[in-house]
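Researcher: Next sequence.
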Amino acid sequence: MNGASGRMGYRQHLVRSILAIRDAGGFELSDGTKVTVRPLLVGRNEAKLAEIAAEHGIEDYTTDLDAALADPKWEIYGDFLVTKARATALKKAIAAGKTIYTEKPTAESLEESLEIAKLAKEAGVKAGVVHDKLYLPGLQKLKRLIDSGFFGRILSVRGEFGYWVFEGDWQPAQRPSWNYRAEDGGGIIVDMFPHWNYVLENLFGSVQSVYAKAATHIPERWDEQGEKYTATAEDAAYGVFELEGGAVAQINSSWTTRVNRDELVEFHVDGTHGSAVVGLFGAKIQERNATPKPVWNPDLEDTLDYDATWQNVPTNEVFLNGFRQQWQDFLTSYVEGTDYEFDLLAGARGMQLAQAGLESDRSGSKVSLPELSLD
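Model: Next structure:
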């Protein structure tokens, strides 16, 4: 687990996924076989690794990535590094023949993302890319609604993601400073557009084109040492995505917005037969035959309680932490030797959308996305 001492690597991948599986004694496959896990922590700071290992009862840690990759005992390489360091490490893991499970984006450019996917294919290396938001309870409820035909023909998707990230002067920032430096791989487009790509293509249809406007609303911030620095990467992005099948998605991503919604991310989906609003956990719907009939009249106060006209979707099953659920799905695919849908080519498609979004912002025009192939 390379980068397991970082924010996401530690909290979601180590503690809430791998250690949760370990501490539960593993998980069972459909034939009753039990899959268990044993982590090896890899990082640059030996003291920090030792502290985490001691706290969680982990036997193995090292600062020598090459030695870890050379040891056949460790079957899977997990990458949770900062974006700038990921491609080099993934290439090493592929050369060592390791199965790979990695965060996204898989590289800093589409070209390198495709190169990594091709290298893995040529080496016969199995790989999985994190698609965590598909495993959120709210989006799993949305998937059930889509599969049931609830919406009829889906017309549009409107997404709102974000929150206020403090500048770092009078309150510490909730995100690392490199997120706001383009030279260090930062920027909300590279961070979030790969997420929006897999959400859109797996729920509504592949992205055919994008028009995006990026902004650096806060030009100066303060880093972890309290030093002032210039923000060279965008902290907000406003995107319009044309989808296969004709639906249109509009998603705002921002680290400079104050939240006035039920959850930090929400998607409003409109269809001919019904609509839904879903977040990380919640989901509410309004069917065609229960839709109110608003009349625009700016001279009279509107007394209709629109929120009350929506119905909550019940939680009819127990949802695991989304990162843990995807880990278990990937480990199941690894043990059983089945194809895994969310592979490095899927990761490259995410980078393709991010790169197209940046190009659209630079040119001020809509950018089409051709189909990607490893051939």
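Model: DSSP finds nine helices and 18 strands in the chain. The mean pLDDT is 96.
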